[in-house]
From TrEMBL:
It is found in: Cell membrane. This is ABC-type antimicrobial peptide transport system, permease component. Keywords: Cell membrane, Membrane, Transmembrane, Transmembrane helix. One of its GO terms (cellular component) is plasma membrane. The lineage of its organism: Bacteria, Pseudomonadati, Bacteroidota, Sphingobacteriia, Sphingobacteriales. It is a multi-pass membrane protein. Its main location: membrane. Residues 299-414, 685-796 form the ABC3 transporter permease C-terminal domain. Pfam families: FtsX, MacB_PCD. The chain crosses the membrane at residues 21-43, 292-313, 348-367, 387-413, 434-455, 681-705, 725-747, 767-787. GO terms for molecular function: transmembrane transporter activity. It comes from Mucilaginibacter mallensis. The keyword Ligase does not apply. Residues 20-239, 473-641 form the MacB-like periplasmic core domain.
Amino acid sequence: MIKNYIKITLRNMWKYKTFTFINVVGMAVAFGAVLLLALTAFYELSYDDFHINKSNIYEVYLEEHHANDVEADAAMPVPITPALKAEFPDVVHASRYGDFGGSVLRYGNKEFNYDVRCVDQDFFKMFTFPIVKGNDQNPLSDKNDVVITEKTAKSIFGDVNPVGKLIELKINNQWKSLNISAVAADPPQNSSLDFNLLCRFEQHPDYEVAKTLWEDRFHNVFVQLPANEKQAGFEQKLKSFVHKYYAASIKQLRHDGAQSDKEGEVLRLRLIPMADVHFSPIASQSRAVSKFYPYLVLLISIFILFIACTNFINLSLGRAFTRAKEIGVRKVIGATKQQLITQFCSESLVICGVSLILGAVAAYSLMPQYKLLFNQQLSLNVLSSPLVILYFLGGFVLISLIAGGYPAWLMAIQNTSQAVKGKVVAGKANGLRNSLMVVQFALSALLIICTVITWQQLNFMRNKPLGYDKSQVVSIPIGSNIEPERALQLMRSKLAAYPDVVSVTGTDMNLGTGLDNSASTSIMTFSYKGKNVKTNWLRVDYDYVKTLGLQVVNGRDFSRTYGADTTVVLINQKMAEQLGETNPVGAIFPTDGAKLQVAGVVKDFNFKSLHQQIAPLTMVIRPTWPVNYILVKVKPANLPASMAIINKVWKDVNPRSQAESSFLDENVDRQYKKETRLSKIFITGAVIAIAISCMGLFAIVILIITQRTKEIGIRKVLGASVNSIVYLVAQDFLKLVLIAVCIASPIAWYAMNKWLQDFAYRIQIEWWVFVMAGVIAIIIAFITISFQSVKAAIANPVKSLRSE
């Protein structure tokens, strides 16, 4: 019996080659796209899933209520972790996690740049980073112990076992010998915590200064709660802890008019579940991604699959009616409903199976290009997840059964005598076909609208004046191989000989995202005339204003004519507003044990991305705060040659540098890579959706014309023109497309309006976007319909009348 089903399936596939080709290609493209997009989504959702204790691990963050807003920050003070363990003995484990900063290791005569993180003893007890060599019970039991990854061990020691060897770490410009106690497996790519070397937190360069300071915050804290402890319950317990250790901060917040939350608190310690750390904008991990992104990618994959399935079902319905006589004869000779349904389902399973194989092969072949195009990490390892397997397997079976089962059931209930004559009543089948086509084109129109709006927002961000000149400015990461101030002075003196170099300056924060992919921020709070003032602090050097083309609106710029000029600051207009001074020039800031005077006010500029409003900013020249970047302004005449000269001079100044320089305008574009990636996914999804929709529409038009061949012949004999026949065929389909656009427009407006709320500076959604999407969809549909309609309209009517 099964052999018979397969034989009939293959015969029918060969007999209806056009429809078989459209079905197989459409489903294969859909399956391939769905595999890649679903792997992307499941990979993002798999972040930190490998930790055995993940359900009980949380990151701690501070929530401050102010007069007009609420601020949340995961940066913690050094003494908080010991205090938490002392106050809450039921906390299973707690560990600090801090970036060492510019990290240089030395072994023998070789120096290495690696990512060094500072943690506590509990780190390996909380997180699942397996120890492959050495002390696997308590690898950081001693303050001078370090743990390195397998990749780092291979890089430094080759095949020699590094356990027990001494390695030197540069701490505050001094070399310190540390013992390698263990080698850990390399952190997975889908880990929010990454490192090459882990040392005890006591080795952090700022530990001794900050170990008793509750105002200085620069690292993260993770806690593991007991299995029976709930997040909300522990957050309630933390209220008394906050009142005890943050009493001064609470008092100052209330003095400044802070608005209490519904429980009457103005300062809270809260928790982020480990499963949400990768997606949290509060968590201090630079790779944080909105959880909206993987679910959107998954939704687009479902859209594409639905559109392909719609084609499959519509073609199956259409072919079912062309096979009415065959089905009628089968029923006459004794075929049951179950046998007819089984026959149709077997055909559907074969087509879906072939499509799935072709789609999987295409997805695997295109995976490297996909990862490069979308700047996306994904792994086939996620296919081992039972949830992912169920998603793909369930979807495959469901599609096969619906596409085969429904048309078979519809034909099985037809009157046998009418079916033998080839006369069947379409009835609800046409209604279903039309409904599916409306949904199909609504999804295509939705993706078109989203693509246009995303492109508009990206274009707006790239072209919006930022308040500084980002063109012809080269940013050079200094790194840890050279003393920063010395590097800056050497670059100044050497580049002075080149006429194309306009100015050279230094700063501790890059603008945009450089090739080193580093991001940092420095916020300070101090009391000014009895109120709390919070400002971003930026370490700059002479000529910073000149290099970036900033505008001084009041007072003066930093100048060597005033001596060292290290006791004055420049502020932006937002900071001036916060001070509440009519003329802030001359105001004194009592900060950091020193009094700093405002020398000038610069016009506001977007020193952060356009996701955020311009915040108060204070710029200062402080030799004790090292610069991290050198900025070089060049003339626009020959940018490639200027970049080559700068790189050559930098290599002479710092031969061991591994960081790459970049132009600031490239950095600014790079900080919107998530939006760029989203735009590419929308465009690709829209193209695939439209292509599959058109394939389906083309096939449906062929079926309709085949069914109406005699009608078209009679109309031609009676004098109908080609245009009137094309219009006759097209009008019903174009109405469906127009209805689809009307349905998609409000949905797209709502979704994209919500997305735009993530940007402090954003476009307004214009009405013409929806009109344009409708026009595009109608034009594409009309071209698709016209191709076959014109062919039928110009055919010889004699042949048309003989066709039946």
